[in-house]
Amino acid sequence: MYRPLADQLRPLTLDDVVGQRHLIGENGILRRIIESGSIPNMIFYGPSGVGKTTLASIIANQTQRKLYKLNATTASLQDIKAIVDELDTFLAPQGVLLYLDEIQYFNKKQQQSLLEFMENGKITLIASTTENPYFYIYNAILSRSTVFEFKPVTPEDVAQAVRRAFSLQAKAQKQPISLEEGVVDHIASACGGDVRKSINAVELLCSAAAPSGEGSGLFVSLADAQAVTQASSMKYDRDGDSHYDLLSGFHKSLRGSDPDAALHYLARLLAGGDIPSVARRMLACVSEDVGLAYPQAVSIVKACVDSALQLGLPEARLPLAQAALVIATAPKSDSVAKAIDAAMADGAQGGYDVPAHLKDAHYQGAQQLGRGLTYRYPHDYPGHWVPQQYLPDELKGRVYYQPGDNKLEQQAQAYWQKVKGNRQN
Question: What pLDDT score was predicted for residue 306?
Fold first, then answer.
């Protein structure tokens, strides 16, 4: 019976697992928990192919518990009930370890069906998810579980698994397999920290390998490795965590005035074809983080975004890169964001009446109501300004806008200080 190479190479002990040193290294917290034999309910959060399922199997083996595996994309309440029916029988005398993959696909009722048995200890739940558990898993499950985050495996660690995979394939095929220089390193770095994906690449390469030309054996070329792993390292899902993480990294790099990092994240977002998210984020960023330090930037960014939407990829990369560089290299000010947020906090309270002299007076009877009687027209006064109250009485004296320390805002502040002088209301 055929067994995938990734399954054949699945580690049986903690020391065989590649990566996740922060959890199962020599003094890792998860290693210590496993070795204690007292296993809590856990949620394994991380990308695919980094050892979540493998670790669940090792835990079951080391604690001598019966392991059940369910995938939330296909499992039902009936499957859970079937597991529950085996509790307290000779099939599961010490309770069971339930590994529930992709738990985010279980609805609230399905997740709640686990709670009773999690609390009495008869079911120890190890749930895995590639999505942020704090967004996708119900609080009742989270409060009874410990979340462990799994990281993408480093290329150095993946390379160990790749070498083992080639070695096992050579034994299985009973002939040597020679590799062109760079094959192992390319596979290890091109699979985006996904060990399973890298092993699958090895299996595919070995099945398609040509004779070495030097007698017996097979030869794997770097060109073939590059073809098999083409674009496989790109992790992108417009509805997943990676999407929002990339956008967050992009926005914060623009705000932090790092043009190189901004271009890096922009390139990754565009590799996923996501022009709308990029455009929206830059239009927000240019007002939030550049603002009045360089007011013209918003016009430039808007023109670049319009061009990109009209052009489409691949040409859209040019105006979008231009916009990103304008934002990243522009002077920064968050005075606009702070001012409007403060004003909206007061505005949300409502109920503040507009001063009578500012109210609309362009209708018959306005004077009898006292509308606009004392309004002073600023253009009739020196400097086109005259002191008068504009805010509602309850907010008189409130200050929302504080000029930034950039050249333009300081110049504007100096101008108005000169115009207003010591004139009082």
Answer: 94
Report the C-alpha gap between 406 and 333 in whole angstroms. Answer: 7
291-341 pLDDT, tens per residue? 999 999 999 999 999 999 999 888 999 999 999 999 999 999 999 999 999
Q: What's the per-residue H, E or C state across the chain?
A: CCCCHHHHCCCCCHHHCCCCHHHHCCCCHHHHHHHHCCCCCEEEECCCCCCHHHHHHHHHHHCCCEEEEEECCCCCHHHHHHHHHCECCCCECCCEEEEEECHHHCCHHHHHCCHHHHHCCCEEEEEEECCCHHHHCCHHHHCCCEEEECCCCCHHHHHHHHHHHHHHHHHHHCCCEEECCCHHHHHHHHCCCCHHHHHHHHHHHHHCCEECCCCCCEEECHHHHHHHCCCCCCCCCCCCHHHHHHHHHHHHHHHCCCHHHHHHHHHHHHHCCCHHHHHHHHHHHHHHHHHHHCCCHHHHHHHHHHHHHHHCCCCCHHHHHHHHHHHHHCCCCCHHHHHHHHHHHHHCCCCCCCCHHHCCCCCCCCCCCCCCCCCCCHHHCHHHCCCCCCCCHHHCCCCCCCCCCCHHHHHHHHHHHHHHCCCCC
Q: Which pLDDT belongs to residue 9?
A: 81
Q: How many CB atoms lie within 10 A of CB 69?
A: 15
Tokens 């496993």 identify what position? 34
Query: Tokens 């996923």 map to which residue?
Result: 272
Note the pLDDT tens digit of each residue in 143-190: 889 999 998 888 888 898 899 888 888 888 888 888 889 889 888 888
Whether the CB-CB separation of 246 and 239 falls below 8 Å is answered with no
Find out whether 177 and 170 touch, Cβ atoms under 8 Å: yes
Would you tell me how many other CB atoms lie within 10 Å of the CB of residue 217? 15
